Task: structure prediction
Amino acid sequence: MNSSPLVKYPDINVVLPPVYCGSVRYYAAMAQYGAVTIDITRRFNKRDKDCHRCVIEGPNGVQRLTVPLEKPQEWRSTRLSDVKVSSHGEWWHVHWGAICSAYGRTPYFEYYADDLRPTYSGDIELLVDLDAAIDRFCRGALGIGCCNSTEAYNEVAAGATSVKDIPYYQIWASRFGFTPGLSVLDLIFNMGPEAPLVLREMTL
Result:
């Protein structure tokens, strides 16, 4: 059972899709529940970009990072668990460079960077493994536990959760103002140990 003080519904398991560097809103929703199931059995939907795309903010404003995928023989019958990451353009170098450019001067980048950096080695083949590795980093930084309990939980879909945007310190706010909806990496690197407090306010 997740014992985080952020949990509001300890006996409910929320079912969420896998995401790449998920948004602040995604983790605010996740943090409310006693258990989390990441559903990797669903079919891949090309319209659902969150599993391989995220949004960060750097010195030039909002930037979208997309992980290239290998094209299967048939998208419609492909499950997320089978989708492979492409090595096209050595995207992992591009993404890590963008993250460093965006957050290298934030208060907590140096504290967390060494834990995240190995994920951007180019060695991960499956998209769900890449998403899971980054999710573990994010949960650890936010104090959100992972529960693989066999106990029976009442399940609720992600759409049943509600969160609101709460402004927090962003290093580029003096240039662009507060920007909601960014990857949770933005919150972690800017706010560090205070990031869970922001998640809590988002669900009050």
